[in-house]
Specification:
- By secondary structure, the protein is α/β, with parallel strands linked by helices.
- The protein has a single domain, classed as TIM Barrel (Alpha-Beta Barrel).
- The strands form two sheets. Strands 4-5-6-7-8 form a five-stranded parallel β-sheet.
- 44% of the residues are buried.
- Bound molecules: zinc ion (ZN).
- Zinc ion (ZN) binds next to loops.
C-alpha cells in the first residue's frame, strides 16, 4: 500500500516520528510520498527522506496557502534545486489554488500555480494538486497549459502530464471533469469514511478504481474511527477498507490497484 500524501515531517510528529513510521510499515505500507509546503519545510522533509531511503520520497512545491508577495523568489530558489541533476524529487507538490480561507493573494496563487504546472512539463514530473473552492480555475489553468492533457497540443507522441487531484471531495460532474485529464488520479483519504460524506456515491457512480490513489494528508483528516485526532499513515487501512465496501471488492484488490496507480503516476518512485 502507498500513502501518496503525508506530511510526516510536520512538527505534529516530532515526539514519536520513528514509532509512526514503524506503525506504517507494520500496517503494510511500503512507500510514503511527502508533499512540500514552503521553504522552511524543505530541510525537515529531505532529511526524513535521506533517513528512510526507499520508503519516504519528497516532492517540491509551494502550497497555495503559503503563497505571499515573495512567491516568485521562493520559486526561484526551489527551481535551483529542481534543476540539479539527480535531485530526489518525485513530483511537483503540493501546488494549486485555495480560495476558501483567504483570497488576498488570489492573483499570486494563480501565477505561482501556472509556473509550477510548467515545471511538471519541463522536468517531466507529476503534479500533486490542492484545490479548495477553486475547481473552475484549476480546470482552466490545466486546460490552457496542458491541451488534451499533453504538452504539445495533443499531437501523437506528446508527453502525457500525470498527477493527482489531492483530497478530492467534489460532485460527480467535477469528478468527471477532472478525470478528463487522462494522466490524472483522484486522491482519496479519510473524508470517504465520514458519516455524511457524499463522496462514496460520487465514487461508485463516476470514478473507476483505476483512477484512485490512497492518501492520508496526515496529520490532518483522520479517518473514522480516529476522526478528530491526529492522522497517521497507518490509518490508511481504514480508507482502503471503505473503498472495498464501496466497490464491493476485496481489500487486497483495492490495495493492489491503488498501488499500481500510484507507481504509474509517480514513476520516479517505482
Ligand atoms: Zn497536504
Amino acid at each position: 500500500m502507498i500513502d501518496t500524501h503525508s506530511h510526516i515531517y510536520d512538527e505534529a510528529f516530532d515526539a514519536d516520528r520513528s514509532e509512526v513510521l514503524a506503525r506504517a510499515r507494520d500496517a503494510g505500507i511500503n512507500k510514503v510520498f511527502l508533499p512540500n509546503i514552503n521553504a522552511d519545510t524543505l530541510n525537515p522533509m529531505l532529511s526524513l527522506c535521506r533517513d528512510n531511503p526507499g520508503f519516504c520520497y519528497p516532492m517540491l512545491g509551494l502550497h497555495p496557502e503559503d503563497v505571499r508577495d515573495d512567491w516568485s523568489c521562493c520559486l526561484d530558489e526551489m527551481e535551483t534545486q529542481l534543476s540539479a541533476p539527480s535531485n530526489p524529487f518525485i513530483a511537483i507538490g503540493e501546488v494549486g489554488l485555495d480560495f476558501y480561507w483567504d483570497q488576498t493573494f488570489r492573483d499570486q496563487q494563480l501565477q505561482a500555480f501556472r509556473r509550477q504546472v510548467l515545471w511538471a512539463v519541463r522536468y517531466g514530473l507529476p503534479l500533486m494538486i490542492h484545490s479548495r473552492d477553486a475547481h473552475r480555475d484549476i480546470v482552466e489553468v490545466l486546460t490552457e497549459l496542458l491541451p488534451d492533457g499533453r504538452t504539445d497540443s495533443g499531437a501523437e507522441g506528446g508527453m502525457l502530464v500525470r498527477g493527482v487531484f489531492h483530497c478530492f471531495g467534489g460532485t460527480a460532474d467535477e469528478a468527471a471533469e477532472l478525470l478528463s485529464f487522462p494522466g490524472f488520479m483522484l486522491g482519496i483519504g479519510g473524508v470517504v469514511t465520514y458519516k455524511n460524506s457524499r463522496l462514496p456515491e460520487v465514487l461508485r457512480t463516476t470514478v473507476p478504481l483505476s483512477r484512485i490513489v490512497l492518501e492520508t494528508d496526515s496529520p490532518y483528516l483522520a479517518p473514522v474511527p480516529h476522526r478528530g485526532r491526529r492522522n497517521e499513515t497507518a490509518y490508511i487501512c481504514h480508507v482502503a477498507q471503505r473503498l472495498a465496501d464501496i466497490y464491493e471488492v476485496s481489500v487486497q484488490k483495492v490495495t493492489q490497484i491503488t498501488t499500481q496507480n500510484a507507481l504509474k503516476t509517480f514513476d520516479k518512485a517505482a
